[in-house]
Structure formats: structure tokens, C-alpha cells
Predict the 3D structure of the following.
Amino acid sequence: MSQAQEQRRKEWFESQGQAMFEPTFERLRKQEAEFKALPIDSEERKTKEQQYNKDVEAASEEYGKCF
């Protein structure tokens, strides 16, 4: 990839990309806070943490597709 292409991608992300992903980031922050508020040894925390980890992985893949 040329430097010009890389610069255009960077500028796009700074102008539009962050806003596009902010709802996802906000949802993930909320999920993280919810499972961390639960007792460490609880089954509910384990389940919510596993779902959070899956959602983070999926979001990372989508985010990576933009670059």
C-alpha cells in the first residue's frame, strides 16, 4: 500500500471511522461494566464475560476490515 493510500485511510478513520464504530465501542464498554459488577465466581459473570469476549473478537474483525 502506498503512503498516499495509507494517509487517505488514516484521514477517513479520523473523520468518519471513529464515529461509525463508537456505538459498538459504547456497547462493549457497557457489557464489560455489567459482567465486572457481578461476583467473580458467579456463573452469570462467566457467561457474560464469554459473550463479551466473543463480541470483542467480532468487533475487532469488523474493525480490521476497514483497514
Notes: The two ends are 11 Å apart (CA to CA). Residues 3-36 form the longest helix (34 residues). The chain has a mean pLDDT of 89. The helical segments are 3-36, 43-65.
